[in-house]
Backbone:
């Protein structure tokens, strides 16, 4: 005999619905009785000010130690962001100065509104690639895309739509990031070999590469691969820590040398770009021309704030208005804001030091940052993992480090762009490729296989589709596949089926679903309950402790289920139904069919009153 299970308060039971404590729909506050002045006063307080304008929380505590840390970090990041911005604009299919245009104003805005000290705002590799795929290298479309991206991010923050980011799961994100890394590396092959490459997808570009590889230059790939080897070597040198295995720990000399090697590794991009730029300058001034392709002339000066363009002239001399431009940008208007936010929030979590990240505030900060950058003729950007690692390793203390980074970019635009034209394109391609190699997340496959093999399906689907299709379509399809998995899981709840006995010795079948009843699962639940019930003629009890919510479709299914049981004269009872769920079921099901109880001893009384149940014979008296 299976021992009878007790249903008490410790197992999650609820009192009857007429009990004043039964409902799980609690009223937290009655704001209808509050005046509008009281509501405003309650919302506009010091805590809200610190939350929505984070600079007000740390600025009064700012001191010399924090200022020095921010100064070092800001300058170090500036040496990183300048060559990165020049290279990323090439990924976006835009002239190199447009990467710099998006690297200073956003830093200033993030100082005031940003919530993470190690997020240097500016162009990113992923946003640059998406911009190229969506805007197609058209400057006006890229700037308008930035404006609309900022507007969408800001609205998402104001309306609290951050939950949309949760639909991009870990496997989908890993597949997307890995595919983007390969796409970015592929986009740089044309500069690495000095050839012409056409196509927008991964396969199309590689087909074009193999068709045109015979036209490759000799010195561009030699310089490019040499720079990649140098950059990877300097990265490795920067990771060396001297004296760690010493019994007494690293000495002062070891610490100084370790710091110098770290600085060498951190500034490797700037060092390679400067050295190759000097080489290009020497060739042009002494030989009259360079054997490798150079960047060419770059306009100097900080751009004048300008309203983003809402029209542009196409290649066929027709004019596209705002509606046409939005139509041409297509799904990129949704994908780019989500991906930029996803990347930024992931960086914030990695460098928050255990502090809670306010995703809403990050959305507002990034939204205003991109809106502001669009008036500076920049394309979409956000937080960059590579720059965040440099900033965190440089001892950053607050978001004030963005001031020094922004000032360095302004100085570069104002005084040094005349020297940027001598930088070889192969060197910038090497900077990108050497950084992108470490974005391929192949290391997640093994733990994902061990944890849950099905998670590989949306991840691999996203990876393959992002390479075969335009990237925004690839990730949207990956998200849809992931949602299908979620819906399938929701449509197939697990059941516990037990044969139990009451205190009077009457047998009954206890069926316990493990989750809520919603429209995707109701047919499956009804079919399974009917199958279990028809194989036994005993009464059936559905344990509803884990059913926290239901909908109209579920209520209709319960009505049909109770009608089926009533038609074949088999008792059906519902145990421990939440009051909110009970009201949904009672609104549809017939009262005489839908029987609910909350206490163990009620079951015996229900059995005794039900004439469909054969009376239990009393046990024989002992002699």
Residues:
């Amino acid at each position: 005999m299976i021992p009878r299970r007790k249903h008490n308060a410790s197992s999650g039971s609820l009192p009857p619905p007429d009990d004043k404590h039964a409902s799980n729909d609690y009223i937290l506050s009655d704001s209808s009785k509050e005046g509008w002045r009281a509501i405003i006063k309650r919302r506009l307080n010091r805590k809200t000010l610190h939350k929505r304008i984070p600079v007000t929380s740390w600025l009064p505590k700012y001191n010399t130690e924090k200022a020095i840390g921010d100064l070092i970090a800001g300058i170090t990041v500036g040496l990183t962001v300048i060559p990165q911005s020049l290279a990323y604009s090439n990924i976006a299919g835009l002239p190199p100065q447009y990467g710099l245009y998006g690297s200073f104003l956003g830093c200033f805005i993030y100082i005031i509104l940003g919530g993470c000290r190690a997020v240097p705002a500016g162009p990113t590799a992923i946003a640059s690639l998406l911009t190229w795929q969506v805007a197609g290298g058209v400057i006006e479309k890229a700037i308008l895309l930035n404006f609309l991206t900022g507007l969408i991010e800001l609205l998402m923050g104001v309306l609290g739509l951050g939950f949309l980011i949760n639909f991009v799961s870990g496997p989908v994100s890993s597949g997307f990031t890995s595919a983007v890394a390969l796409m970015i590396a592929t986009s740089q092959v044309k500069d690495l070999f000095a050839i012409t490459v056409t196509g927008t997808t991964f396969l199309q570009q590689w087909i074009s590469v193999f068709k045109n590889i015979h036209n490759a230059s000799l010195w561009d790939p030699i310089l490019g691969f040499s720079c990649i080897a140098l950059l990877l070597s300097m990265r490795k040198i920067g990771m060396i820590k001297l004296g760690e295995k010493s019994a007494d720990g690293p000495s002062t000399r070891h610490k100084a040398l370790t710091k110098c090697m770290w600085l060498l590794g951190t500034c490797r991009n700037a060092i390679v770009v400067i050295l190759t730029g000097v080489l290009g300058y020497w060739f042009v001034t002494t030989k009259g021309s360079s054997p490798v392709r150079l960047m060419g002339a770059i306009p100097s000066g900080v751009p004048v704030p300008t309203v983003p363009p809402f029209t542009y002239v196409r290649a066929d001399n027709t004019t596209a208005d705002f509606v046409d431009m939005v139509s041409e940008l297509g799904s990129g208007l949704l994908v780019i804001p989500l991906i930029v936010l996803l990347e930024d929030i992931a960086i914030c979590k990695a460098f928050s030091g255990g502090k809670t990240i306010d995703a809403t505030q990050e959305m507002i900060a990034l939204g205003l940052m991109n809106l502001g950058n669009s008036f500076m003729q920049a394309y979409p950007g956000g937080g960059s993992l590579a720059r965040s690692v440099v900033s965190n390793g440089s001892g950053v203390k607050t978001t004030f480090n963005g001031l020094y980074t922004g000032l360095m970019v302004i100085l570069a635009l104002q005084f040094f762009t005349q020297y940027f034209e001598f930088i070889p394109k192969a060197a910038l391609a090497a900077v990108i490729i050497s950084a992108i190699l470490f974005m391929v997340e192949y290391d997640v496959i093994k733990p994902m296989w061990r944890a849950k093999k099905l998670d590989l399906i949306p991840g691999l689907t996203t990876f393959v589709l992002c390479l075969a299709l335009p990237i925004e379509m690839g990730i949207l399809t990956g998200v849809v596949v992931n949602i299908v998995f979620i819906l399938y899981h929701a449509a197939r709840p697990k059941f516990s089926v037990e044969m139990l006995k009451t205190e009077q010795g009457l047998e009954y079948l206890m069926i316990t679903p493990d989750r809520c009843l919603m429209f995707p699962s109701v047919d499956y639940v009804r079919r399974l309950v009917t199958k279990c019930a028809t194989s036994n003629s005993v009464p059936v009890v559905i344990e509803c402790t884990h059913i926290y919510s239901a909908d109209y479709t579920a209520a209709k299914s319960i009505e049909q289920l109770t009608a089926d049981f009533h038609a074949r004269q088999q008792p059906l009872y519902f145990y421990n139904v939440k009051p909110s769920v009970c009201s949904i079921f009672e609104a549809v099901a017939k009262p005489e069919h839908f029987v609910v109880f909350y206490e163990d001893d009620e079951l015996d009384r229900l059995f005794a009153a039900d004439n469909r149940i054969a009376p239990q014979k009393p046990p024989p008296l002992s002699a």
